[in-house]
Amino acid sequence: MTAQSISARVLSRPEFIALVAALMALNALAIDVMLPALPYMGEALGVTNVNERQLVVSAYMIGFGAAQLVFGPITDRFGRRAPLFVGIALYVVCAFAATFAPTFAILLGLRFVQGLGAAATRVIAISVIRDRYSGREMASVMSLTFMVFMAVPIVAPGVGQVILLTGPWHLIFIFMTVLASAVGIWAWIRLPETLHPEYRRALSVRVIADGFRLVVTNRVAFFYGLCGTFLFGAMFGFIICTQQIFVGIYGLGPYFPIAFASIAGLMALANFLNSSIVKRVGMRRLSHFSMLVYMACATVILILSLTGPVPFWLYYALLMVLQFAFAWASSNMNSLSMEPLGAVAGTAAAVFGFMQTVGGAVLGTFIGQQFNGTLTPNAVGYVVMGALVLICVLIAENGRLFGVGKEYETAPVAVE
Fold this sequence. Notes:
Layout: H1 3-10, H2 13-32, H3 38-44, H4 55-66, H5 68-78, H6 81-98, H7 104-132, H8 135-149, H9 151-166, H10 170-190, H11 205-217, H12 219-239, H13 242-249, H14 256-281, H15 283-307, H16 312-338, H17 345-369, H18 376-396
Helix pairs in contact: 2-7, 2-8, 2-9, 2-10, 4-7, 4-17, 5-6, 5-7, 5-17, 6-7, 6-10, 7-17, 8-14, 8-16, 9-14, 12-16, 12-17, 12-18, 14-15, 14-16, 15-16, 15-18
């Protein structure tokens, strides 16, 4: 019996969720720990335009999204483990090299390549969940994974702030290097191969094209995947403007990490509650209800921003409800997009990951670049993206809301 088969037998559900969440958290870490340091990076590397500093995040996200189309077919052919460790190694090397970046352009290039490596963690994290679970149980596991994953935005800006108090911004990349190395070692020792041999697909143009065709021609899966693109676009537009909104508009200063962490904490709570509620209510009912709440809050924020300055307490309260609804909607819609595609889970995770990260990053960057010192551009982004999500849901469900869908079988789990 190999070490890998022993791992497969003793890897408990809680440890599986924690490990998958840690892999996904490397992506959140690469974004959120940067936020307090953006002004210092810009100043050190001669970037005078405040909005251009956002590109440190955008460059990473574009690389992260683009490479998923490559990792998807590769992981469906060679399994989940080997591509994962290639990606983590690339992430670690680029994070370390970024500490020595002499120019802003080189820093952006390294961030882009770091995102390429991080793509493996996202594709494989979603794939191994679908390999092992299906239906409402998959949605429950996905929610718990996102709950742990959301712990990173809770602490990351604060960690970044502490690092900046103890040394230069370069230390943030050292921190990422060490943490990603630790997660990689954990996965190497404990994560079994979850792709069953009979589900492995040949790495040829015809087979890859056929896998992509299966994904994009499944109406329910594709349009729920597209929902994730618009949701992430609105969220990314908020994230890259967070420092400008909380510090620039509301003057929170050193309390910015606390305000950001509180939102992330509420989203983690939302995912925890979803993990149990979804088993009784179902993915569709929860996600559809959440989107109606999301749109209501977004519309109120937009109206208030157009009529004058919005008191912080009112904006923050509406934002908290909106982000709670976002957590329920995004988690369940991710599950709905993967549910019919267990036989091509890696390719499906890649296609949706590409759509959501590249599409979301482009949309979010456009929203962020419209920042004008008010809440209005972000509020418009929330409303427009939310409306597009509702249109996609209606197309996926043939014009009906709050239905109950078909259950699918879980793909067999490989134990080598």
